[in-house]
Every structure is written in structure tokens, then in C-alpha cells.
Amino acid sequence: MNEQPGPITQRDLERELASMTEPNETGTELWREALQRARRLDARGTRRIPGRRLSMTRELRPAETAGILALVVILLAVPLLMPPSLGRARQSAQSVDEVPALRALPSEPPADGGAYALAGADEAAPIGVPLRALPGAEFADASEPIDERTMAARALPEAANALMARRGAEADAGRGVGGQADLAQPADRDTERAAERLIAVTTRVSVVVDDAEAAFRACEAMVDPAGGEFVENAALRGADERRTGELTLRVASERRDEVLDAVRALGEVIGETSSAEDLTAVIADAGARLRTLRQVEGELSGLLERRQNDDLEDIVAAQRELGRTRGEIESMEARLRSQTLRVRLSTIVVGVRERAEPEAETGPAYGRTAAEAGRDALTLVDRLLYLLIVSCPVWALAILIWLAWRLVRRLTRR
Amino acid sequence: MLLARFAAGDDAALGELAGRHERAMIGLARGLVGGEELAREAVQETWVRVIRFARTYNGRASVKTWMYTILTNRCRDMRKTERARSRRERTRRAPQPADERAAIHLRVAQAVSELEEPGRETLILCFCRGLTHSQAAEILGVPIGTVKSRVHKAMTRLRERLGVEAGLNAGDVRTGEVSA
Question: Which of A101, A108, A332, B34 is the most exposed place for a label (fewest CB within 10 A)?
Fold first, then answer.
């Protein structure tokens, strides 16, 4: 017969609850077994067991975390410190109105005559400085042409000396803008200031075209030979693809904008620059010198005719001087023609470059896109390889430091 | 200090630490998992974790609380996976009680094992010798008020199941200090 279980008191309950967690009477040295087991696990170290989490030794310490973060920062910083990479900068197109030289000109000419130097024509000439103030300038003083001084220094018959003295006096009183008849410049200085200045403008335009040869022909057709315009030089280079070339057009200054518009319309303008040189004083002085030389020539001719019976030596000297003067006249005329031509005919230098042939549109656009993506991917791989190689010393140093730190840890633990 | 010495490489410090706590840890584990073998296994695994994580001990809790927390968590995991095996073990280990005391022990043990978590776990911890309610709260990671509430509920349930005689001070929950 089963006995009925006895009643359980609160005291019994508490006693039993306490006995459930009664400490062992004797030690069991479980800790020793645990220590050996832990050492074995540590020795196993980083071995990865498939399907299980990494062992506790793979847990990152704060120092390891800091080292990894430092590496990441360094790797990100290397590309930023690399020199600028690819891509070509396009030259910004400048219109003539944006040429600093022209914009920087004062609105009024120098109060005491002369002319302003323009940047581009002479780098030693600062903008706005009167020519006569320039050191080493050929025309140090526009009111005193060098030709007078030069002629005065030569040993000439007395009449020539008197003539030159008279011309020097006239020069001190001021002179107007002279020169060839076709210029028709007013002589008065005030009128000269108000008149259009004699500017030689050179414009360089670079265009990308589909067909360089066709562009060349088009440029050549832009000049008007009847108006004295011409192609100064033309050169086309390249055999098959991407031909390049350069033409120098000399066009009437009043047609410059018209021709530039036509050149720009040939293709894609990738660069345009303009420079301007004020030749007003240069031409004026050249004209004055030429005038003076011609007057001297006339006087010398008259002297020879009137003094046929003088000493042979004097006659020969006068003839020699006349010859030299005529030579100077011819040289000055040529120079004046050249300077005048530069003003009358603006220079347009056209640089032509053929555009790369587009790929044949034989298939869907995504084929080309894929090809471009492939090229970009190769470029990216190339850059990554470059980055990897560049950062090799950093990697090597980081690995060495990590290995050394682990070695120190193991030695310390032992 | 013992743990710090061990972390610095002094294995004897670990032995000293084990001498202080291992027996009590086995007792607690026995109460939590309900079997001697499982308790020893839980304690050994606790030592393994203590040894491997000794350097990461940050000192926010006492070493005892830290170790007991590891032990409690380990026992919880083992209980989840070994529940059926533990029950069979207790059944095998519990032959026909020879005397009344043994019968009471068996009934209480069975009633406790049938309590719901986390009340059971909290009750065991609070009756573990050497642990205060505040230490139990720290080990479980709950406020002390929660600990008291859980213990009260668990005791009430036990009394209902065991038919504890009325009239006793049922609300008087003692710490682990039970007079023999």
C-alpha cells in the first residue's frame, strides 16, 4: 500500500531549494582541464571551420581595429595624393573682345603723344605704358626720330648737314602721321588720336573637323584675291586618320569677323586666341622717316646737278651718299609696306584637326555602350593595379607590423 | 586581481580563483541544469570562456558576478538543448525514495523543474548560497525588483503544486542562507 506523501512545509521547501545548489564538498579540478582545452583552442588559432563561426582568437582587438582603420585611411588617401590623371583641358575660346590687351587700353591716348604698347606684341611692353618710356625701344621719343640723329652723326657735305638740322627743328615742333598715300592718315596729332588706330590683329583658331582636306579647301576659298587677300601658308599632315594642318589667312581687317565666323562654322572650335599690336606709332615714324629720306634724296640730287663742276672727290661723296639714301628709302618703303599690310590684312591662323572616325553604326547602340564600358573597365583595372603597386610599400609595412605584433603577443603569453 | 594575474600569464592565479569558486559554481550549475554531469560540463565550459576572455574582462562587475553570468548563460543554453536528456537522467537518478526526506527532495526537484523560465532560474539563483538578490539581479541583467517579483511568483506556484501548508509566511523569501 502506497503511503501518502507527507505535507511539505515552507521550511522544507526552502531547505530543498537551497540544497539544490549546495556546493560540492570536494574540488574537481575542472579548471585544469578547461585550461588545457583553452590552450588547444588558442593553438588552433585562425583555422576556419566551415559552417561555424570563427574561433574566439579571431576576434579583433582594439589595436587590430585601429590598424585596419589606419590602413583603410592610407589606401583612400593615396589616390588623392596621386598627380592629376587623364583628360585634356580644352582651351577656352576667346573672342577678340576678351583680349586683355585691347580691354586694358586706356580710353585716352598719352597726353604728350606717343602710343601705348600692347601685350602680345612685345612681352617687355607693359600694357598702357607709352612707347617712348620703354627701355631699349627703337623709338625712344616719338617727337625725335632716330633717322635725324643718325644722319646728323654721319660726315656729309655741309648742305646735307644744314638740311638735316632744318628737319630736326621741324621734328621738334611735332609731326603728323605720314606714310604711304593709301593710308590717308591726318597729319594733326589731335586728329590722329581721334582716328582709327593702326592695329595688327592676329587670331588663332583651332577647329576639329570631319575632313581636314575639305576644311582646307573651304578656308582657301574664304580669301578674296581681288581684295589683296591671300593664303600665306598652308600645311596638311597625316596620311590616313586624324589628319592635322594649319593655314595662315591674310584677310582684310574689315572682313576679319566674317571670315572668323566662316572658320568657326567648319567644325567644333576647341580654342581661339587673339592678339593685337598697335602699329600706329611704328607706321607713323616709318612714314616720317621715309618722307625725310625722300626729301634728302631730292636735295642731294639737286645738289649734284647744280655742282657738276665741283671737285671730283666731293661729287663722288655726294653720289655715294645719294646711293645710300636711296637704299634706306627702299628699305623703309618695304618696311612700311609690311607694317601697313599687317594692319590692312588681319592674320588668321587656322589649326585644323580631323575628328576620329565614329564607329560604324551597324548594330544596336548597346553594343557600342558595352564596348565603351569594357574599355572603361579595363581603364579601371589599370588604375586599380597602379594603385595597388603604388601602395605596396604601405601594405608590406602593415603586414610586417601585424606579424611582429602577433609574435610579441605569443611570446608574452608564453 | 587573481584574474588580472592570470591574464598576465600566472596560471597559479587561475587555480586560486578556481579554489574559491569552483565548488559553488558546480552547485549552482547543478541546480540550474538539474544533473551532476551536465553541471560539470557547464562549469568546465565556463572556465574555458573565462580563460579565453580573461583579457577582455573590463572590471565593470565583480569577477564572481562575471563568472556566474557566464555560467548561468551556459546553463541556460544547455538546458534548452539537453532538457529531455536531463529529465531522463533525473528519473534514472531518482530511484524509489528510501525515506520521507528523499521523497520530499524528489517532489520539490520535480516541481522546480516544471516551473517556467525565467522564474525558475531566478529562484535557483536567489537560493544559491553566497549570492545576494542584488548579485542575482546583476547576473540576470534585470532590476532587483524584477528579481523579487519573479521569485514571489515562482514560490507561489511551487506552493500551489506542492500543497505547502498554509499559515506559513509564504512571502518570506530568504536569500541562500538556509539553516541546516
Answer: A108
Average pLDDT, chain A: 72
* Angstrom distance (rounded) from CA A377 to CA A100: 44
**Identity at A120, one-letter amino acid code:** G
Cβ neighbours of A31 in B, within 8 Å: 14-15, 17-18, 22, 47
Predicted confidence (pLDDT) per residue in A297-324, tens digit:
999 888 888 877 778 888 888 888 889 9
Please state the ipTM of this predicted complex.
0.78
Q: A33, A61, A57: which is closest to A44 by C-alpha?
A: A57
- Partner B contacted by A411 (CB < 8 A): no
| Residue B56: DSSP 8-state | G
* The three cell numbers locating residue A213: 582636306
Top pLDDT among B26 and A25 is at: B26
Rounded Cα distance, A189 and A114, in Å: 10
Residue A362 near chain B (CB below 8 Å): no
- Of the candidates B11, B50, B108, the beta carbon closest to that of A13 is on B108
